[in-house]
## 1
Amino acid sequence: MSIPIRVALIIGAVLVLLYFMRKVSKSQIKINDILFWFVFAAFLVVLGIFPQIATSLAGLLGFQSPANFVWLTMITLLLVREFIASVQISQLRSKLATLTQEIALADLDEQQNKDR
Amino acid sequence: MTELERGTMNKILAVVPAYNEEENIVSTIEDLKVNAPQVDFVVVNDGSKDRTAEICREQGYPLISLPVNLGLAGGFQAGMKYAYRNGYEYAVQFDADGQHSAACIQAMVEEAQANQIDVVIGSRFVSNKKPFSARMLGSRLLTGITKLTTGRSISDPTSGMRLFNAPVIAMLANEHDLGPEPDTVALLARWGYKISEVQVEMRDRIAGESYLNLTKSVIYMLHMCVSILFVQWFRRKK
C-alpha cells in the first residue's frame, strides 16, 4: 500500500478518536457505546503502520490491490456495525414502549386510588 | 434501637441491585437486617424475569422495581437517586447474591467518617494476599493501570462493595457514565476524591447464575482499559 493511503488510515483513526473524545468530554456519549469505534480506530492504525498485513491477506484472497482489500474490510465492519445497531434500536423501541405504558398505567392507578 | 437513637445516627443506605435473584434475596436481606441493623436498605429489581420482585413485596422490603432491565449501572444509579433524594449521608452497594457480608459495613462507615473518605472500597486484599490465578489476572491488570494513571494503589478494583459519601452520591445519581465500575473509581481518584480500602470478607455465590461469561469478560476488560488508559484524560471534572 502506498504511503498516502497508510497516512490517510492513521489520520482517519485519529479523527475518529478526536470526534468521540469531544463527545465524551461534553457527556454526550457513554464509553460502552463507542467501544466498537476504538477497536475500529486501532484496526486502522495497525493497518497503516503494518501494511504487510493487508498486502499478504489481499494476495491470499485474490485481490488486485491491498487498498481494495482494506476498503472491503472496512465496508464489512461497517455493515456488521449497522446490523448490530438495528437490533439495538429495535430493543430500545421495545423498552421505550414498555416504559411509556408503565408510566401511563401507574399514573392512572394513582388517579383511581385518589378518587376512592 | 429507638427512633431517637436512629435520628442522631448517620443515615446509611444499602443499595441492593437484583436481577433474577429469587433464590438469594431473602438470605441477603436477612444478613443486612441482622448484622447491619443501623443501615437502611432498598432492593432495586432490574426487570427480573423471576419472582424477585414478588418475593420482595411479600417480605415487605423497600423496593424500587424497574419496569425494564437496565443492567447493573442503571439499577445502581436508580438506588443512588433514591439515596440522594432521601438525604442519605452514605450509600453502600451491596450484592444481592450473598457474596458480601453485612457485618463489614460498619467498618467501612467508620473509615469514611474518621478520615473524611469519599469512597471506601470493601477489599478482599488489604490484609490478605491477592492469589495468583487466572481470575485475578484482570484484577491485577486493573490495579496496575489505575496505579499508572492515577498514582493510587487499589488492591481490589473489581470489588462491588463500595461506600460513597453524600457529595459522591449526588454525582453518581445525576451524571451519566459513572457506573459502579473500576473506571469510575479511577476517575474519582483522578478528580481528587479520597479513596480508601477496608478489609472485608466475601463469600462465593450461594445460588443462581453469575452474569459473566467469556465474551462479556473480554468486553468488560476492553471497556475498563480504554476508559482508564485513554478516555479518562478527556472527561471533565464534575
## 2
Amino acid sequence: MIAAKHTLIAASILSALIAARAQAQVAVKAKMIHTMAGEPIQNGVIVVRNGKIAALGSADEVNIPDGFQVLEAEVVTPGLIDAHSVVGLAGAYNYDHDQDQLEHSTAMQPQLRAIDAYNTREVLVDWIRSFGVTTIHTGHAPGELISGQTMIVKTSGNTVEDAVVMPVRAVAATLGPEAEKTGAKSPGTRAKMMGMLRGLLIDAREYRDKRDAAKKKAEESAEENSEESDEEEKKSASAEPPRDLSLEVMVDVLDGKLPLMVTVNRAQDIANALRLKEEFGITLWLDSAAESYLLVDEIKAAGVPVIIHPTMARAFDETENLSYETASKLVAAGIPVALQSGFEAYVPKTRVVLFEAALAAANGLSFEQALATITRDAAKLLAIDDRVGTLDIGKDGDLALFDGDPFEYTTHCTGVVIDGEVVSDKKQ
Amino acid sequence: MRTPLLFLPLVGLLLLSLSPITHAEPVAFVGAKILPIDGEPIEKGTLVIDGEKIVAVGPVDEVDVPAGAKTVDVAGRWIMPGLICTHSHIGGIGGADGSGPIQPGVRVFDSLNVLDSGFKRALAGGLTTLNIMPGSGHLISGQTVYAKLRFDTTPHRIEDLFILDEDGNPTGGLKMANGTNSMRDAPFPGTRGKSAYLVREQYIKAREYAAKKAKAGDDAEKMPPVDLDLEALVEAMQGKRVVHHHTHRHDDIITVLRLAQEFGFRVVLHHISDGWKVADEIAAAGVPCSIILLDSPGGKLEAMDVNFKTAGVLERAGVNTAFHTDDWITDSRIFFRMAAFGVRAGMSRPAALRGLTLSGAEILDLDDRIGSLTPGKDADFIILDGDPLSVYTKVLETWVEGSRAFDRSDPEDRLYAVGGFGAGHDQQPYLCCFGQEAQQ
C-alpha cells in the first residue's frame, strides 16, 4: 500500500512538472502595449504565470520574477482572434481527403460537429498563428443551407481537446445562391431555403415540446408513485421522442442558446435572415454581409452583430457590391463588428485576419477600432471575452509581438504566446 | 480618346468626369517626392509632361518649367511610374477552349470586354499597362495582349488599348502552362511526360512549317497553307513573341527551361511557387520571372511551398523579377502590397519598386516606352499620398500617356477604388442618360 502511495505522489509531481514546463513562465517587455482595455501602455511589461496574465503595467511598476523567460518587442497586442475561419477543416492540399468543411449529401445538417473534423496539425493553423492569430472561430463552411457547427479553438495543442475553448459556438447557415442545389435536389430557390429553415425550426419546437412534456409526465408520475411498476416505467419512457441529434441542436438555436450564423451577401438575403430572427426569436449573427451598408438601420434595430467579410474578399457575383469601407459604416452606426478570414476554395487557401484588418484600418476604421475587430470586439461577439480579446489580469496569456505597426505590410510578427507558452518566435 | 482638347486648370478643382483630361500645353508637377526607378529617388522633384510624353524629370531647382506650361503643386505627394502587371486576366478573358491543350492561334483580345469594371479597378490601383492573358488550363492557351489603360475617356473597343509595334500590329506574347492546371482527361495530357511531349511535337511541326515556307520563297505553289497555330509558334521561336510560361513546381520550372533551350523561344517564368528552390538554375538560364506573393501557401499541391521569400531569393541570385496580380486571383487595387511583402521577406526596396514597373516593362519588351520616369518615355505615372509600400497610402491619380485616367477625388472613380453599390458593373459607354446625345 505504501509503495503504491509513493508511486501516486511521484506520478502527480511528475505531471505537475510537465504541465509547468509546457506553460513556461514568460514575461514580455514592449515599447507599446495595446491592451485594448484602456490607453496603450508605453514601455510596459506583461507577466504571464501558469498561462494567465498575472501582472501588467509600465516597466517601473512591474517586476519580472527570476527564472522567467523574457521576450522583447516593439509592439504587443492581445493574441489575434479570427471571428470566422475554416482553417483546420479546409486543408491546404485542397484534395477531397483534406476538405472537411462541407458535406454535400443533404442541405441541412446542424448535427455535424466541428470537434470531430479538426486537424490540429494542419499546416495552415501554424501559418496563421505565425502572424499572431491565437484564437479562431472555425468549423463548417458557408455553402450549404445548414452545413454544421462551428467551435472556438486556440491555434495550439496536440489534440482538439487541448485546443478547444468552446466545442460548439454556432450553427452555420447560408442564404443565397451559394446554398442552391441543381436538378431535383432542394433547395433550388431562395424561397425554398426559407421554407426549409422555417420548417426545421418548427420541427425543433415540436420536438422540444414533446420532450419537455414527456419529461414533465415522468417527473409527475415519479412524485405520485414512489414505487413504479415496470409497466408504468416503460409507458413514461416510451412517451419521450427518440433522440434526434439534428433537432437537439436546433432546439438550442430556437431557445437562443446557440446562435445561427447566417452567411449572406445580397441585401435581400440579409433581409431574409432578419425575418427569420423576427419570427422565431433566435440569436442571429450575420456573416459576410457585403450589402449590409444598405440595411444599417434594420440591422441596428434588430440588435444583430456582423462578422464582416474579409476586407480583401473578391468582389464578384453575390459580393460584387462589397466595399472596403463597410466595416467603418457599421461601426459608426454602433453595430458590433468583428473581422474574419472567411473561406477560400482555391488560392490563397486561407486569408490572414491581420492583413484584412490592416486594409480596414486604411479605409475608414481608426487603428484602434480596426485592431478591436480582431481582438476585443471579436471576443465580445463570440462571448469569449472572459478569457481573451484584451490584456488584463486573469485573462489568458495570449500575446502577439511585432517589430512595428502591426498593420504595416513590412512589419513582422516576431513572437506568439498562447496560454503562456511561446509557440512562435520566428520573424514572419 | 483624343477629343477636342479643353483648357482645364488642375489645381484645387474637382473635375467633372464628363470632361476629357488632356492638355494642349505642357504640364509641370512640382514639389513631389519622385521615384524615377531608373535613378535615385528625388526628394523634391519636378516632372514635366508634354502631349503623351515625359520631357523632363529632376530636382525642382534643376528642371526648368517650360514657358506656357500648366503648373501643378504636388508638395507632399509621391510620384512614380504607372504600374505594370505582367499577368492579368481582366476583361472577361476566354482563350483556348476545351477542344485541345494546344491552341496558339487563339488571340485573347478577341474575347475582351473593354467595358469590364476590372479595368477601372486596375487604374485605381495605379496600374497603367497590363499583359492580359488567357488562362493556365492549357499547355498553350493562346496569344496575350499588352494593353495600355487609356481610360481618360471610356474606350469603345479593345483596339483602343493596343500598344502597337512598328508594323502597326498589337504587341503581346504567347501563354503556356505546365504542371497540374494543364493536365486532365484526353485530349489533354494526363502526366507531365505527356505534357512536354505534346509541346515538343507542335514546336517541331512549327519548325518544319517555317522551313517549308522559307523553301517556297516566292513560289505560291510550294507555300504551305497558312496555319494560324503554327504561325504563332514560329513567331515564338524567332523571338518575336515572348512565351509567358505559368509554372510552379521546381521540376516543372526546369522543364520550361529545357524546352526553351531546345526551341529557342524567349521565355518569362510566371508564378514559380518553388522558384526559391531553383533560383541559381533560373539565374544561369538568364530568364526573367514574374511572381505572385499570396496570403498563404496551399490551395493546390504545387503551391504548397509558395513563400514571400521568393522575391528576395531571386533578387540575390541576380534574376530580373517582376510582380503580378493574376487578377482576379489577387486584386489589382492592392498591387503595391505584393512588393511590400517582398520587402517584408528580404527583397530590397529598390528591387521591389522596380518589380512593379521597369522589370515588367523589360519583360514585355516595352522598356523603351514605359517603366520609368525618363524623358522620351510615355507619360504614364501615378500620384500617391505617401510611401507606396505603406498600407495606408492611396493612389490619388493615375495618368496614361499624358492624360488623367483615374482621379480618386471623382466620386465615380472612387467607387471603383473602394467598392460599393455598382462597382461590379461594367462601365457605361456614355456617361449620361439613355437617348441623350453621346459625349463623344
## 3
Amino acid sequence: MFVLYMKGLNMRNLTETEFDKKYHMYKDLIYNIAYTYVHNKFDSDDITQDVFIKYLESTVEFNSLDNEKYWLIRVTINQSKNYLSTSWKKKTILNDEMVERTMEKESREKEKNDYYRIITSLPNKYKEPIVLFYYEDLKIEEIAKVLNISLNCAKKRLERGRQKIKEELNNE
Amino acid sequence: MNDFDKKIKDSKECIEKSNQNDSHHIYEMAKNKVEKPALIKRFNYRLVIKYAIIVMFLLVMFTGGFFISKSLNKNGNEQIIYRNSERSNNNQSVNYEEVATNNKALNFGSFETKDDLINYLNDNKINISTSSLNDVQIMSDEITISPKADAAISNSSSSYQTNTQVENVDEADIVKVVGNHIFYLATNVHTYKDYARYLYMLTENDGELFKEKTIEYNRTEELLETIDNYSLVRIVTMIPNDLYVTNKYVVVRVTKTEYKSIKQIGLDSKTYYNNTYDYGTTCYFEIYDVNDLSLVKTIELAGSNVSTRLIGNSLYVVNNYNDYLRNNNRFYFYPYFFLDDVIYYPYLNHIYYCEDSPQMKTYVSLYKIILDDEFTVQDLHILTPTVDNIYSSEKNIYLIRTYGNDVINEDDYQLTYPKTRVVVVNIEGDLTLAGNFDVKGKINDKYWIDEKDEYIRVVTTGREYRNYYFDKKYVYRNESTIFNFLTIFKKTDNGFEESSSIEEGIGKPGESIRSARFNGDVVTIVTYRNIDPIYYVDISNPLNPVITSSLEVTGYSVYQHPYKDNYVIGFGYENDNASNGYKITLFDISDKEDIKQVGNSAVIYNYVPTYIENDYKELIIDIPQFFYNPKALFVDNNLGIYGFRLQMQDYYYEKKTDSSGIYYSRNLSKTHSITKYLIITIDENSDNPISILELDVRDALYRNYDGTYSAYSEDYYQRLVFIGDNYYLLSNNKVNTFTRNGNDFIEGKELLLK
C-alpha cells in the first residue's frame, strides 16, 4: 500500500529547458510513427503528447541517446496501438469536431500516395520495420533492438514487407 | 537506393505536418500529475494491521541480533556450518577495517552492516523487501586467506597450446593438450531434439590416436507430478562450453539451465512443452581427475559468465549476477555458490561499490578457485553495471564496461560520447581491489588493453555527437566525428592516474580503429574507412607515446598476430573497388620510422560467381571463425605455421522463365556446403611471403530435422592440434591424423568419435 501511495510522485529529473531540447529532438520521430497508425494529425498530436508525458513520468535511466530513442519508439508504437483499440473510438459520436476530422480524412484519401496507403495498411509486423527503416532511417540492427527481435527476423520482416508492397502494387 | 526504395522513402511526404510546437504545456501537465498524485480509493485497515503484526513478530524472532552461516543441503536437510578464516602465509591478517579504509581511498566503498547494503540498493531504485533478508548469512568476519597459487604450469613446446593473449595466462577453449592426451569438447551438434554433447579424452600412442573415455552431457527430465494427460516436469540442460587442463584436473565450464515445464502428449502423439517458472541459469564447473576423467568436484556460481582465466593452478571466474532483481527469495539476494551440495554466501566485507559509478544494479563477481586438494574459493563482488569483457595479466584482472554517454552542455552545443570504465583487481595473492579508471571511447576487444610494469596502455575508439542549438532551444544542426585514442595510465598507491595520451593522428577523418596489438614497446593500430592505414606507435616511453610511421594499404586487419620479433601478420578484409575477400598480410616493424609490407598479400576472394550454360553458381565464403574468436586460429610460432577453417556455400541457380520474364531460382538439391582447413606458412624473404595449403576439404551437408536447419554440421572442422610431429584435425564426428614433414602434411588414419 505504501508503494502504491508513492506512485506518481516521481518525475524525470529534467528542467523545462532540458525537456524542451528533448522535445524538439524527438517530436517529429514520435509524431510520424504515430501518424502511420492513426492517419490524422489530431490523434497523432495526442499520442505525441501522451508519449512525452510518459517519458517525464518514467524513471527509466538510459545508457545512451540511442537507448532513449529506442525506448521512445517502442512507447510510441504501443500507445498508437492502444489508441486504436480504445472503446471511445469505436462509438459513433456525432459532433462538429468528429465530422470535420472525417471529412478531412475522406478528402485526403483521394490524394494519398499509393505507396503510403499500402505501407500503412500492412500488418504491423511488416509495417513497423518498413516505417523505421525508410521513414526514420534506422539501421537493421537498431530496428531489431527497438522491436525486440533478432537481427535475422528484422531482415526477414523488412524483406517480406517490401515483397508485400510489390504484390499490392502489381494487384492494382 | 533503387527506384522502388526511393518511392517508399518519398511516400513519407504524405504525412501531414503537426501544428504542435510547444513543450511547455506538456511539461506542466506532467508536473501537475506528479504534484497531485491519485489518492488511494480505499484505506485498507486490515492490511495495515496484518503487516504490523508480521513486522513485530519478526523483530521478536531476531532480537538475538547475530548472523549465522547456514548451509542448505540440496535435498532439504539443513546443516549449519561456519566459514573459517585462516591467516595468510605472511602472518599478516587483513581485517575488515583495513580493507574498508584502503578501498575508500581507491574510490570504492564497502558496507559495515547489512542495512547499509540494503539502503544502498534501495537508493538505486531496487525494491527489495527487507523482511526477506533476515536470515541470510552475511558475516563481518575476517576474510578468508588462501595460500599463494603454485607456479605456472607450462606445457611442453612440442604440443599444442591455445592461442592466448598473454603468456602464462591460459584462456578456456574447446580443446586442450597435455602430454599425450587431448581433451576435446564436441559441442557443436545442435538440433532442437538432440541435446547431447561430449567430452572426449583421446590418447596418442606412437602417432596413433585412441578414444580413451567419453562423457556425455545430456538433457534430463524429472517427473514431478501428473494430472490427466499433463505432467509437470523439471528439466535440466547441461551445455559444456569450454575447458582447462592442469596437471591434476580437467575443468569443464557448463551452462546449466534449470526450469519447470508442463508436458503434454498431443493427439498427434507429439510432445509439447509449456515452459513455466523457476527459470535459472548458473555458471557450473565440473572438475575431473586428469588421469581417468572421474568426477572430483562440482562448483556452481551464481550469475552468467563473462570470462575465465587460468594462471598456474588458480582459476579466475568473472560473472554478472542480478537474479535478485526478479526474485525476492532470500537465496537469490546475494551472489551464492555451491561447492558440491554446500551453499555459501559472501562476507559483507567482500562486497563493494564504486562511489561515482552510475546505475549500479548488478553484482560483478570475481572468484578465485585454487585447484588443489581443498578447492579454496575466494570471492569479491562489486556493485557496478554489468561487465562486457575482461583483460588479464599475470597480476591483475581488468573488468571492462562501456557505459552511457558523457554529456557536456556548452553554450551553443551539446556534446555526447561513450566512455569506458575499467575496474582493476589484483590477483597476485588475495583478491584485492586495485582501483579503477575511466577512458573516453570504447575498448572493442581484449587486445586493445595491455599492462606493462606499472603502466596500463589502452586503445579506444568512438563517435562524438554535437547538437547545435538555435536560440538555445531548437536543434538546427548535428554532426558527429570519430575519435581514436591511445591512453596510458600509471598505477599509484591511490589508484590510477593518466600518464599520457595520443588523441590526434590515429586514423584519418572518419576512420575508426579496427584492430590493435601490443607487443612490448610498440603497438600497431589499424584504422579503416576506405583504406587501411596501419600505424606504428612507439610506447617505449610511457610519458611520451609517438606515432612514428604509418602505411596505407587497401582493406583492413581485424586480428594482428606477432611473428618472430620484427613482424606482424594482419588477418582481415580486402576491400578495394575491384574485389572483396579475406586478406593475410605480413608487415615488417623492424624500423619504427618505416613500417613496411613484405611482398604481396594473400587474398581469398569471398564471392566467386561461375556461369554454366544458362545457369550460374555462387561460391560465398563465410567470415572465418577466428576473426571473432582468435582461439580458433592454430598457431605454432616456433615453426611459423598457422591454420584456420573456412566454410563456404556453393549456391546453384537455374534460369527460369514465366509471365513476368526471366528469373533465377535456387536449386536446393544442387546447392551444398563445403568446409576446408587451410595451413598458412610464412617466408619473410619471399615476394609472396604467405603460402596457403589446403590441409583437408570435404562436403559439409546441412541436416534437416523436422523441417528446420541445424546450426552446424557435424563435418565442420573445429580445431587443429598437434603432439610432436603428429597433427590432429578435430571435427564433431571424427579426427583426421596427419604427419608433418617440413611443410608437407601426410594424411594418416581417421578416428571416428561416434
## 4
Amino acid sequence: MTIFSLNEVEVMAKRATRGAGYEWGIAEEAGKAIRWLCSFDLNGCEALAQLLKSVEHSSFLDMRPTKMDGVWTSNSGVMCPLLAGSTLSDFAFKLKENPVSMGKTLQPKILIPFVAAGAYQLQSVVTLSWGNLIIVTNGDDVCVSGDHEGLSPLHIDNITLSLSGHTSQNLPLSSRIEVPKDTWDTLNMFAHQVYAPATEESRLLGAGEPIEN
Amino acid sequence: MNETLDPATVVSASSMRSPDTVMRLARLGAFHQCRLSFMRTLLRRLKREDWQFDRPKFHINELGVGTAVYSAEGPDRTYSLVCFGHDLLPEQRSDRVIADAWDATFALFDGVPSEGDIERLSHNVPLQEAGRVTQRELCLSRANRSARLFDYVVDCLADGKQPDKGKIDAVGYLMRTTAVYGSGKFGAADREVIADRKELAGPFQAEMLTVFLIRAFVLDLVEHMAHARAPKTAAPLDRGLRRRFGVGNSTGLGLAPFIINHPVLLNNWIAAREVALACVRALRSVTPAEIKVFKQMLARARVNADNWKSEHPLQVKKLGSLRADFEKLETHISAQSFDAEKPWDDLYQWAEEHLSFEGQEQLVSLLLEPYGELVDGIVSCMGADESAAFNIDGAMSINQLKEIIEDVYGWALPIDWQQAENQARVWYVSEEKLEPRLGERFQEPVEPYEQPLAPGRDASALYKDIEDWSGENTVAAFVLRHPQHRHMVRRAQITAKYPYAEIRDNTISSALLPIDLLRCKLSFFGATHFDPRSDRWVRINMFKDAPFPNELSDSNADDWSYPLLAES
C-alpha cells in the first residue's frame, strides 16, 4: 500500500482512462470522479482499475446510454459508468421532470461523483439507490445508508435517481488515500499507453537539450 | 477587490483590453513582471507581517555536502526549508527532467521538522521524483551549481577577495533550480490543504517561499565552503554584492502546457492585470509624486533592458525592439505635461500605436508601479478553483455554443488544419521519466500519444460537427452523439464565463515558440530577465537584488525588481 495525494490519483486516473482508449474529455472526467471518490475514502482507484479491465476489449460506443425514455440502456445491454455518469451530469436537468431509472451498469460507485456534479448544477439534493443502498448528495456532501459492501459490486442491474432526500451524517473528507499496489500497478499499466516510447531521437529533439553553463 | 478603490475610478468591462488583443502568443510572450507578480506579493506580505527567519541547522562540510534547515515564522504558522547538499560530478549535472542527481535538493516542510522528519526526508528528497514525500511537505525542489560562477566565487572568498561584479552580473546566480514541485506531486500536500491559509492562498506562494529560502541557503553555502577551506583568509560577501545573486531557474516544456491546462487560473491572472491597467488608465489626473515614481521606474526598467543579456537570436531581436521602444517612450514622455485628462490612457494609446509588444507590455507594468494602494489588493483575485467551472452545462443550447465558438475561436475557423504547417507539432509525454516533449507530427511517430493542447484545432473540428445541429437542441444531446468533443465543449463553456481563459493562437503550428508560453507564466512569477536557451528552454533569475530574509525588516521589500539608478 502506498499513500497518494488526491492530485496524484486524479492524474493517474485520467491517464489510465485515456490509456484504456477513452476520449480525453471522458478521461478528464474520470480523473475528477475518481479523485472525488477517494476524497471520501471510497476506494475509487479500485473501482476504476476493475472497470478498465472489464471494458478492455469492448466497444465504448455500445456502452453509453442510447435509450433514455424509461429505463436507460445501451446497445450492448450494459453501461459504462463513466459514459453513463457523464451523460447523467449533462442531462441533470431531466431530473427536474422525472426520476431516472438506469439498467445494468458496471462499477456503479463511479456514478456517484457524476450524480454529485448534477446535484451541484441543480443546486439540489439527489438520491441515488441500488439494492439496499441509498446515497444522498447535494454536490458538496454525500451520505450513504445501507450496507457499504453494496457500494462495490462489479455491476448492478437497476439504479434509480430522483431529486429528493436530505444529507445527514455526511461522509468525512480525506486529503489522501491508500491504494493497494496491484490496483496502482493496473492503473499504471493502462496509463503507460499514453506515454510515447523513449527513443534517442525523442530525447534529443523533444525537449531540446539546454546549453549547459 | 481592493477596498481602497476610489469609486470615481471604477472601471467598466468595456474599458479593459479585449481578449482578442491580449490573448495572442506574440503579446503574451512579451509580458513583463509587475507589482502583481508572485515574488513581489510574497515579499510584501513577509515584511508587512514581520515574519521571523532563522537557521536552526547547518551541518555542511567543505564540499557543500550535508543538511541545513531554514525556518520562516509567520503570524499563524512556521514553514521550514530542509536542504541537502550533494557531491555531484560535473558530467552528472543536467537541467533535464531525466536527471537523477543534483548539487542540492530541498523540501518545504509544513512546520518545524523533527530529527525523524529530517531522517525520512534524507532518504527521499535527494531522489526527487524517485522518492516519496508526505502531506507535511508542501514543495519539492532541486538546484544545480552554475559551472561559470560557483567555484569562482568560492575561490575568491577563500582568498579573502570579493568576486568581480562584472562576472557576477554576467550570470546572476550561483545555483539554478530545475523544478519546484508542489500541489500533491510525489505525495506532497495537495493545493487544497493550504488553499485556505491566507499566507499561501495566493498562486505559487509556497513555491516562491521555497525559492526565497533556497537563495538564503545558496549564499550561506558559498561563504561557508570558502571558510571551511581557508578559515584564516576567507571573507564573507559584501552585502551589496550578495544581493546581486538571485536563484537561477531553468524552465522547459514541463511548464509550457500549464497555462493551457489551467484556463480559469490563467484568466484570473490576466484579468487582474487588465483590471489594474484599466483602473490606472481611468484616473482623471495624476499627481507630481505619481509622475515621479513612474519616471524613476521607467529609467530603472530601461537600465534593466540594457543589462539584459541573451545570445539567443529570438531574444536578441526582442531586446532590440524593447530598447528602441524605450528610446521612443522616453522621448515622448519628456514632451508630456500630464495636464490633460486621463494622461495615462493617452500614454497607453500612444504606445499601442508606436511601440512593439515588448514596449507596450513593459509600459503596462510600469503604469501600475505608482499605484500600489489602488491595485495591490487585486492579488486576492488571482487564485482559481478550476473544478467549479469543470462540469459541462448540458442544458446550454447549440445556438449558444455556436456563438461562443464564433466569438472566442473565430480566429481558428478559417485555418486549414489539414495543412502540414498548421498541425506540425505534437505535445506528448515521454515514458522516460514522464518528461513532457514537443514533437514533429510528420517526422516522428508520436501522434498516437498526442495530449489535448490544441484548442484552436479542436474548436474548428467541433464547429464542423455542430453546423448540422439545430439551434434549439441541447449540448447534452450533442456530446452524447459526439463524445470526442467533450473536452473542447468544456473549454468553450469555460471561456464564455472567463474571457481571458483561452490563448487565441495556434499552439501546434510550425511557427509555435513554446518560450512565449513560458514567458507569460514566468512574468507572473516576477522574472525580469528571460534568457531563452532554445525555442523551448528559458533561464530566468529569481529574487535578484531582493533583500535576504534577515534584511526584510530594515529594507524596502518591494523595490528590487529593476536596478537602482545610482548603480551603473
